Amino acid sequence: MELLLLHYPFTFLLIAVLILCWRYPTFKYFFKMTFYQVWIFTISFLVVILALPRGRSFENMKILRTAILTVKYALGVKIVVKGKENLRTKKPCVLVLNHQNSLDVMVIMQMIPNRCVPIGKKEILYMGPFGLACWFSGIVFIDRKKREESIAVLTEMAHTMRKDNFHVLIFPEGTRNHSGSMLPFKRGAFQLAVRAQVPIVPVVISSYNSFYSQKEKRFTSGTSTIQILPPVETVGLSSDDVPKLTEQVRDSMMNAYQRISGMTNGGSHE
Predict the structure, then answer these.
(1) Non-local CB neighbours of 10 within 8 Å, separated by 6+ positions
(2) Which of 6, 39, 149, 238 is 20 to 30 A (C-alpha) from 132?
(3) What is the DSSP secondary-structure string of the chain?
(4) pTM score, two decimals?
């Protein structure tokens, strides 16, 4: 037995971890979340190295997408994308997504199109190798505390996205939402779409609660569904139409969220 422990320490460690995961759901939760975070930060080093020759470019998003998405197999998460035909366009558009937690980073990689520039909070830039990998991948960071600066960034993007033909991805809730619903949408994404006169493509990620719960410390295997809704045109709209447009898109996303999450009467899994 001692010889086996000396020759195969990692095998016994793996067996021990599997037993602990099987017997103790809370241990399984912390183990999988730790593995997920370590994976992203470790793989980010590789992304930075591979991106260095090209420099900062949204073409590097293909590398980041492949590197991060691989972890879904280890976590036992299946990602199903519905409505892909609504994103089969070579013309620029603004993608708006609901935001739940850190698993969104992995899930959105299943559907993020080529030539897409995500908008992220500035804090991500300071998250070590992951922040650096995001910067090399062309992600644009905004400081939510500096409203005028954020508006200036979005205004510049409105002027360039049609000319350079790229998509923009934004979480209009502005922050993570664990409520099982959707927070009120901020209007920046919709102002951007109206100024650029490009379509808005609502993208809805189903609730993770069937396999993941931070509150209950539960992380099992399961399926996440992404529903891409039909584009909402903005041609002819002005800034005066933005409030109504924002609510219209949020309502359609909320309905889709409840449907694909198996909710009824606006209820929550929580």
Answers:
(1) none
(2) 149
(3) -HHHHHH-HHHHHHHHHHHHHHH-HHHHHHHHHHHHHHHHHHHHHHHHHHHTTT-S-GGGHHHHHHHHHTHHHHHTEEEEEE-GGGG--SS--EEEE---STTHHHHGGGTPPSSEEEEEEGGGGGSHHHHHHHHHTT-EEE-TT-HHHHHHHHHHHHHHHHHHT-EEEE-TT-S---SSS-PPPPSHHHHHHHHHT--EEEEEEPPSTTTEETTTTEE--EEEEEEEPPPB--TT--GGGHHHHHHHHHHHHHHHHHHHTT--TT----
(4) 0.87
Longest dimension (CA), the chain: 76
User: Which tens digits make up the pLDDT trace of 131-186?
Assistant: 999 999 999 998 877 878 888 888 888 888 988 889 999 999 877 766 667 889 99
Alpha-carbon gap, residue 191 to 270, rounded angstroms? 33
Amino acid identity at 86: N
- Cβ atoms of 75 and 47 within 8 Å: the answer is no
Token pair recorded at residue 207 = 């609730």
Q: What is the rounded radius of gyration, in angstroms, for the C-alpha atoms of the chain?
A: 20
CA atoms of 92 and 161, how far apart (whole Å): 7
Using CA atoms of 255, 259, 263, 269 in order, give the dihedral in degrees to the nearest 10: -100
Question: For residue 234, what are the contacts with CB-CB under 8 A and spacing of at least 6?
Answer: 193, 194, 196, 197, 198, 199, 200, 245
Of 203, 122, 130, the C-alpha closest to 168 is 203
Report how far residue 87's alpha carbon sits from residue 201's, in angstroms, rounded to the nearest whole number: 8
Calculate the CA 167 to chain-centre distance.
15
Q: Both tokens of residue 89? A: 């366009």
